[in-house]
Amino acid sequence: IVLALSAVFVRWAATQSFGHRFVEAQIARQSVRGQTVRVEGLSGDLFKSAKAQQVTVSDTIGAWLTVQNAALDWQLRDLLSGSVSIDALDVDEINLLRRPVLAPSKENGGSLKSVRLSQVSIRMLTVDAAFAGREAILTAKGSATLNGAAGRVAFQMSPLDAATRDKADVALDWSATSPLSGQVRADGPEGGLIAGLLRLKA
What we know:
Blueprint: H1 2-13, H2 17-29, E1 36-40, E2 43-45, E3 49-58, E4 63-74, E5 83-96, E6 114-127, H3 129-132, E7 136-147, E8 150-159, E9 167-174, E10 181-187, H4 193-197
Parallel strand pairs: 5-6
Antiparallel strand pairs: 1-3, 2-3, 3-4, 4-5, 6-7, 7-8, 8-9, 9-10
């Protein structure tokens, strides 16, 4: 009976403001390779669908990525088996301020067995000049799966402003027995965003 009541309480708390604040505090305490995440304005049902007004990712220098108005549809129970299953991630705005400073990774790695991101949509992706050599405003969408040593990533990005002419359509697969394969279609001017990401000189 105690276990059943505890489960009911946890399930109820996942929809309440004090439960949201508790999760925000727990996330803020975590650090992966020197990166910390601060979530603000968490709401919704954390077991199925949740929203966040703002997410800030920081390293030892400060914030390098901010997210505005993110909506997540996922299956929290899958975490019990070491998997992350996200049906949809919808974001109003992401700002890439600069490249992050990463601490050395630990050899033992994490405990996740698989990751599935069925659909991600970013209405506005703003890339600062400190990240890629020039500023750009884009829209992007994609998906990703990771299962052990195998995975697949697919995404498309296109410009939102007249000054940005970079476009990309990428689909990549890999596994423990086969090398990276797929296709990359990229179109951008010399000295543009794609050239900056690849560190190509103008």
